[in-house]
Amino acid sequence: MFSTLSIGSARSHVTVVGVTSDGKTVPAAYAKIQAVSDALDTPGFSGENGEVLAAGAKHVLLGLGEPGSVTPASVRTAAAKLIKALDRRGDKGISVDLSAGFPKKRAEVEALGRAFAEGLAMANWRVDRFDGAASRKAERGGALAVDSSDADFRDGLRRGLLLGGAVNYARGIGATPPNICNPAWVAAQAKKLARETGLKCTVIDHEKARKMGMGGLATVGHGSDSKSCLIHLAHVPKKRSRGAKGKRLVLVGKTLTYDTGGYSLKVNNGMKGMKYDKLGGCAVLGAMKAIAEMDLPIEVHALLAAAENMVSGDSMRPDDIITMYNGVTVEITNTDAEGRLVLADALTYAEEELEATAIVDVATLTGGVVVALGHFCAGWFCNDEALTTGIEAASAQSGEKLWKLPLWKEHKDFMRGQHADLINSNPARSAHPIQGAAFLSYFVDEKTPWAHIDIAGVGNVDSPNDLCVAGPTGWGVRLLTDWVDGETR
Fold first, then answer.
1. Sign of torsion over alpha carbons 376, 377, 378, 381
2. How far apart are CA 79 and CA 215, in angstroms?
């Protein structure tokens, strides 16, 4: 692993040459170099995506696959494989030329540069903050400078490293264990981020939330020694683009720093990994970091509903009835369906106090969405056609896949209660991945564009892949940033 990645040239660098697999084509300028020509004839090297081969001391060949299949996703994967090879070699700088696989449109070249840098950055991250005296991990190497002679590709590299850094920032918070990361710690991280990037940060603590009538947020965190809070970050640029006039976007993240399930206790080792129940909030934090560093010309607010769902004499119980921030009453049928309770109050706050023109919430909300869609994509819901178009465009740009699920009147009625207005979970378990969204719909005005994204299946991985080590993936940082950026136009 490299200590840092940055844009710029290095005294000692190698040229990374993209090679397509149709006869192992390289840019014409390199075909005449003997070391490159010899390397292309190496038995077993076919130019398949992600193949890495040294060509003398000055060049490294990187397979791009078939020319027609070179996409941001494939380049992102190729770069992830490349950086592992560069780490083993101990290189200090690279100049990248993938023009053998470039599309004709220059905007697409910039997208490839961005994807390449994202692949480098995301594959260069691991959890090493907690390495101790018995660690067997290799120490991080030095810095790696990344450059390209193609101006559009270089612009993409710059954006990709910024986004990759924001993703890794979110992953670092996500990986922090619950004996360190509690609601107060998350609030401290948000304040630190605000100081470093120019964001504004305010925190509504547990007592104030209770007095304001935030029954969901206050109740979920009441049984913990570390009380819940609502963290508010704001990006208010000095100048706004024409497309951003009149817009006030709000990102909402479920930030359960730990979830025992409460009295509906998680059993059979089901509690393991519940530090990842905060990954929605981590995605929002990472996106706000990127938005601030890019100084996007649009007003954006973030709300992190932070709580710890613990068991104590003061914890909520099944059969309790609470009153939410908007006056809706809720009967607790399952204390393990706590995320929607904290999110509901945050959604109402976004609606009533921030007067949001569009709201997107991100949460590790249901096990049902994992059963339905696996770890291949997030499930999501949206009540507005224009917002749907914007989120889907951001998904295509970031490569973070979504699958839209229905949210009908029948689903909403399914969450109505007999003793209170609503129940937080229907014991029938029917439409399990939709129940959470159906519940949340009662806390957003039907006229307000709103999207709910359930990342329970994609927020972390149990086994390493090309881009990610086992642990948090930072899913959603790039998608949210791309959506916000799209709203400026």
1. negative
2. 47
Under CATH, which architecture does the 5-167 domain have?
A: 3-Layer(aba) Sandwich (3.40)
Q: What proportions of the chain, in percent to the nearest 5, are helix, strand and coil?
A: 40, 20, 40
Tokens 């709103």 correspond to what residue? 450
Which is the catalytic residue, given 24, 171, 340, 478? 340
pLDDT digits (tens, 9 = 90+) for 312-361: 999 999 999 999 999 999 999 999 999 999 999 999 999 999 999 999 99
Over residues 359-366, the mean pLDDT reads: 98
User: What is the reported pTM?
Assistant: 0.97
Largest CA distance in the chain: 81
Q: Which of 84, 266, 401, 412 is catalytic?
A: 266
Q: What is the CA 91 to chain-centroid distance, rounded?
A: 29
CATH 3.40.220.10 in the chain, residue ranges: 5-167
Three-state secondary-structure class, residue 179: coil
35: burial class by Cβ within 10 Å (0-12, 13-18, 19+)? Answer: middle
Question: Across the strands, what pairs with 5?
Answer: 144
Within 8 A by CB and 6+ apart from 42, the residues are: 53
Task: Give 312: exposed, middle or buried? Use CB within 10 Å, 0-12, 13-18, 19+.
Answer: exposed
Residue 340 known to be catalytic: yes
84 is catalytic: no
Architecture of domain 176-486: 3-Layer(aba) Sandwich (3.40)
